[in-house]
Amino acid sequence: MIVVVEGKRRREMDAAELAERMSSAGTSRVVIDVGTGDGRFAYAYASAHPDAFVVGVDAIAERLEELSAKAARKPAKGGRPNVVFVRATVEDLPSELTGVADEVHVLLPWGALLVGAMLAEAPVMAGIAGLAKPGAEVVVVFNAEVWEDSTPKDMADLPAVTVDCVRSWLAPRYAAFGLDVLDAHELSPDEVGALSTTWARKLAHGRHPKFVHLRARRAPPRPPAP
Known about the structure:
Blueprint (H helix, E strand, L loop, with lengths): L1 E5 L2 E5 L1 H11 L3 E6 L5 H9 L3 E7 L2 H11 L11 E5 L13 E7 L3 H9 L2 H10 E12 L2 H4 L13 H13 L3 E9 L1 H5 L4 H6 L7 E8 L8
Parallel strand pairs: 3-4, 3-6, 4-5, 6-7
Antiparallel strand pairs: 1-2, 7-9, 8-9
């Protein structure tokens, strides 16, 4: 069951209601933002792309209260019927979201989400990959500046995240979860600032900001071995 955040309210939503929300919003594709934080990217994406139904997912419901309350208003007052905010961890996502996404975004992850995405840990990667339909695009943006100042303890022995690291080290590990890495490149601070997240705007004005953008595609299911 999905736990939806609507301001201070938490309530359950089943698959039938989720499908009804998507249908009534008149959208043609589903976009999921994992680790959405305060939900600004999800809200901004829904505002800019009325053809998309956006699901912002975060483990901490309190972060989602402000924008989820705004999204629940009438459209004239900032309401967005094509976005919903869900309390969940990437390691334990509701089954109702399995295989529904045309796009999955993981933007500037931190904590367990960062470690899992960088180490390609099974609980995190299975969660991210499991959201995506075959052929769906998965975008991960890493804050490479982390390795310059205070490397996370769990990653101290790993090379810093770079384009070469993504291509040579991460790509084969992502492929094990059905995610084929198509591209990896650095983003400029301006490009990161344009992601419309609170954290991105702050990081874009850091001392030596450096960001790596990874784009992958969910591979189709493999046929069973003969």
